[in-house]
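Hi V.,

You were right to ask for the full record rather than a summary. Here it is.
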Amino acid sequence: MKAILVLEDGTQFVGESFGAEGACLGEIVFNTGMTGYQEVLTDPSYAGQIVTMTYPLIGNYGINDDDNESVIPWPKGFIVRELCDEPSNWRSKETLDKYLKRNGIIGIQGIDTRALTRILREKGTMNGLITTVSNFKYEDWAQKIREYRITNPVDEVTTKKVLHYEGNGHKVALLDYGVKENIIRSLLKRGCEVIVFPASSTADEILSCNPDGIMLSNGPGDPKDCKFQIAVLKELMGKKPIFGICLGHQLVALANGGDTGKLKYGHRGGNHPVKDLVKDRTYITSQNHGYAVLAEKLDPKRAVVSHINMNDNTVEGVRYLDMPTFTVQFHPEAAPGPMDTAYLLDEFISLMDEYKLEG
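Predicted structure:
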């Protein structure tokens, strides 16, 4: 079946449909990972977006039961150059096509993803539509495409109830703004007891479990839309050690008087070089974000930039001087991508140790 991809500037690509049928609106973004498409699809940070994979062959190892980062996939649509119909892997349970059909996600294959990525890099991230409708007329959709906006995605992806994972070590309150499962697994691997709180939780509710530390997860959307979460973080600051990842990193900056801005086309993939300014060493990181903390808006008396992106010099990490808090823009837990920066999870454990001794 024919499928059409339409960008808000009017550019159209004609390809072949896979996955579900129908029409979907979303923000078009691209991911540069060579593998990890299942983790990408189940990353809640992609809620409201249509994801383009730049690697040309996708689906070659199928879908398995082990690599999900959440219970369901989150993108509105999926764009690939070539779909593999006959995956080969001992863990594979079904094809990518069947998986997307089962979850109601529309896909398009057979288009020039290099040309699409170049457009997004030159013009910036833009809205778009994938449709399999036979009588499609651009003029019927043009205004809807332009006006599309991702609204309140954190409320959509967060857990609806408190979740408790047993452990013998530090008790960590994990605020779920769209948490990936490997964040939880990484804490459990380090012996932590993990209590996952919905994004709607108040400061009193979070502190009532008497955590040794607070972790802030990744998540989708514009951080400035999370006004309630920012207000809660203002109450939590300085009371417990805090480690923030991705959206959590941005929210801490906003809660401390900083600012964020939207990147032209974002950072998404498992090959982004980031320099740790303290260690004077560059690491390859896994990333998925469209916004960044603005270095010039940080109060130098309260916060210092700890990591920078080696491609565009954007802020990738912040350490706060007046409280036991540090944050990073990338994913130290990876999934997918390199585990080079997992040392930051160990630093969070050390920070909780130090705070206990001092307290």
